[in-house]
Amino acid sequence: MVLVQQCNTYDEEIIVEKVREIFTAHGGIEKYARPGVTVAIKPNIIGKKRPEEAATTHPSIVYAVASLCVQQGAKVVIAESPGGMYEKALLKGQYRVSGIEDAAVRAGAELNYDLTETEVDNPKGKNLKKIKVLTPLAQADCIINLAKFKTHGMMVYTGAVKNMFGAIAGLAKAEYHFNMSKYSEFADCLIDIHTAVKPALNIVDAVVGMHKDGPTAGEPIQMNTILSGCDAYEVDMVGLDIINCKYYRTPIMKQAVERGLVSDNIENIEVQGEVVKCPDFVVKYNDELKRLHLIDGMLGKTLQRLIKPRPVFHKKKCRGCGECVRACPAKVIHLDENKKAKVNLDGCIRCFCCQELCPFVAVEIKKPLLNRIVIRGRR
Question: How confident is the model at residue 252 (pLDDT cuts 50, 70, 90)?
Answer without folding.
Answer: very high
